[in-house]
Prior knowledge:
The protein is α+β, with helices and mostly antiparallel strands. The chain is built from four helices and four strands. The chain is elongated. The two termini are about 20 Å apart.
Amino acid sequence: MRIFRLVPFLILPLAAHAQAPLAADELIIKPYTISGSSLAEVEEQLNSKGPHGYWAWAQTRWRWDGNCNMSFRAEITMPRLEDPGRLTAAEQAEWDRMYAALLDHEMGHVTIGRDTALAIKAADCKVDSQAYDAEFRAAQKAYDARTNHGIDTGATLNY
C-alpha cells in the first residue's frame, strides 16, 4: 500500500468486464495529507480533514453516447500520512492495516458504480437513467449500512 504515499495521484486501469467492456475505465486515487505523532492524533486529522466528513470518499461517473459507447471513471480520495516515521512500528502496522481496509471499502463503492454502468450497457443504454441512478444510490447506502461505513470490515484505527 505504500505506493499511494509516494505519488500525488495514481491512475490505474480497471479490469475490463469480459461480456460488456466499457470504452474507457480508469481509477484515480487522490490523496489528502494528514499528520500525527500518535494514532490518536492521526484519527483527529482523519476526522477533521476527511472528505465530506468521512475518512475517504469514492465517486463514480459513467457516460454513454448514442451508440452506447460507455466510459466509466472512479475517483477515490484517500488519506496520505505525511510522515509515517513519527509513528511507532506497531502504530505504523496498524495504520497500514486500516489503510488497506479503507481502500478495500472504497473499492466496494467503485464496484457498485461499475456494476451499474455494466447493467446500463447490457440494456443497450435503453434505460430510465433516473431509475438506475436511484438504484445506484440505494445500493451505495445499503453497502454503507451493511459495513457500517467500513468500520465493521476494518476501516478503523485500533489503539
